């Protein structure tokens, strides 16, 4: 290796550059996968979502109200009809309650000098039951629904940063908070639970579940149906079943359909990443194969002399592989500080892995991608050196030495 120090230096430079590129690629992929695999904390199977609409007063289909009826009574009648459907388990209504929707109604709660910001979701207790939302502090979905019934708030639990200090959102549990920072409006936080995410590819942000006021008209509805009764439920939802007075359901869809539509752009982006990764890996492999082929052919006479002196094929292969892995180790020692500096200065702090948001890089993903990079490069080196080394060891030592 000392005799070939010039070639080894260029090889180390090549491995270092390839290592940094692969690390960035694996970091992006790990970030996407880790976010996608996060535990949701709620169940969207057998769940349908719809928008609640009110017939315009100028419409010929508008029905005028008397003193006893209003859109709110139509709402109650519509929900009663749905609850009487034999294929329906639970019906909940509210505002901003549908997953796979990119609405963001920002609201913040303050306690002492610390404020918690989240996506406001105004819900009835049945929304909690329909989604089967899980608590992060030991409560059941029924207990969470009771908290909403009592007029209290529920928040989700992502850690958040204020200044240079990290806070756990459980800090607000069982505390009185100022609604929107207004000290005249005091609300009580009754529990900490999982928050409804806008997408499976979006990390868990802050969510505030607030009771929907009785006098408020909801604009969305979630319906949990009996398992395995999708077809029967859809067939039962005639126009008459989806309307009560001037209130009707629009855009009734299963959450699976909503998820497929919402994730179409994400899936395209991920496919593009994987295709780029595949071609990049092929190029890296071919580059390694050509490099090691050239390096091995230059050492054919050395291999012949070692074979004449009793070296076995395994001994020669072990030497070639160990030398290559030693070069990889040196390049890794150079690449890791460069990668850590990139993280330290925030060059990869926010990865634009989706069209709508950024995902913050975490420490486990940094070292996970580093390990993947080193392991993958080691495999490429082994694959790239095996074929040229096998060809070189098949030569006749006498013929090689004669040619020399």
Shape: elongated
The fraction of residues assigned to DSSP E strands is 15-25%
Distance between the first and last residues' Cα: 21 Å
Q: Count the domains.
A: 2
How many DSSP E strands? 15
- Low-pLDDT runs of 5+ residues are 352-359
Largest sheet: 6 strands, mixed, barrel
Mean pLDDT: 83
- Proportion of residues in helical segments: 40-55%
Radius of gyration computed on alpha carbons: 31 Å
Textual characterization of the structure:
Helices cover 47% and strands 19% of the residues. The strands form 3 sheets. It has a 6-stranded mixed β-barrel. The chain is an alpha+beta fold and 404 residues long. A hairpin with a 6-residue loop joins strand 8 and strand 9. It has helices at residues 5-36, 71-83, 125-131, 141-149, 230-236, 255-262, 264-297, 300-308, 313-344, 363-393, 397-403; strands at residues 47-54, 88-95, 106-111, 114-123, 153-155, 160-162, 165-167, 176-179, 186-192, 207-211, 220-225, 243-244, 247-254, 350-351, 359-360. The chain folds into 2 domains: 5-37 and 264-403, no CATH class; 47-262, no CATH class. The protein has 11 helices and 15 strands.
């Amino acid at each position: 290796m000392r005799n070939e120090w010039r070639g080894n230096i260029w090889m180390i430079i090549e491995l270092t550059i390839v290592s940094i590129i692969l690390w960035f690629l694996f970091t992006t992929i790990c970030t996407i996968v880790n976010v996608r695999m996060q535990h949701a904390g709620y169940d969207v199977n057998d769940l349908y979502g719809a928008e609640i609409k009110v017939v315009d007063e100028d419409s010929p289909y508008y029905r005028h109200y008397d003193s006893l009826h209003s859109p709110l009574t139509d709402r109650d009648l519509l929900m009663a009809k749905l609850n009487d459907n034999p294929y329906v388990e639970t019906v909940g209504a509210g505002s901003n309650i549908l997953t796979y929707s990119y609405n963001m109604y920002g609201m913040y709660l303050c306690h002492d000098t610390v404020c918690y910001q989240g996506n406001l979701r105004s819900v009835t207790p049945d929304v909690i039951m329909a989604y089967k939302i899980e608590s992060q502090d030991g409560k059941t979905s029924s207990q969470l629904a009771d908290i909403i019934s009592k007029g209290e708030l529920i928040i989700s639990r992502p850690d958040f940063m204020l200044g240079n200090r990290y806070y756990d959102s459980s800090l607000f549990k069982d505390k009185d908070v100022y609604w929107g920072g207004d000290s005249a409006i005091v609300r009580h936080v009754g529990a900490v639970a999982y928050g409804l995410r806008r997408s499976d590819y979006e990390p868990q942000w802050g969510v505030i579940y607030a009771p929907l006021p009785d006098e408020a008209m909801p604009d969305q509805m979630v319906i949990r149906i009996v398992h395995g009764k999708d077809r029967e439920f859809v067939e039962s939802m005639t126009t008459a079943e989806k309307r009560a007075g001037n209130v009707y359901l629009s855009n009734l869809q299963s959450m699976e359909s909503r998820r497929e539509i919402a994730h179409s752009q994400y899936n395209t982006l991920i496919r593009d990443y994987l295709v780029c990764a595949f071609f990049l890996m092929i190029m890296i492999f071919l580059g390694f194969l050509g490099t090691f082929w050239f390096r091995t052919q230059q050492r054919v006479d050395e291999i012949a002399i070692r074979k004449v002196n009793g070296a076995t094929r395994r001994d020669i292969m072990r030497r070639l592989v160990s030398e290559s892995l030693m070069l990889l180790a040196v390049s890794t020692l150079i690449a890791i500080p460069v990668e850590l500096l990139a993280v330290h200065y925030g060059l990869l702090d926010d990865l634009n892995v989706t069209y709508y948001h950024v995902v913050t890089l975490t420490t486990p993903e940094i070292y996970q991608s580093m390990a993947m990079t080193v392991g993958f490069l080691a495999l490429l080196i082994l694959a790239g050196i095996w074929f040229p080394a096998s060809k070189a060891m098949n030569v006749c030592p006498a013929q090689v030495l004669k040619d020399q």
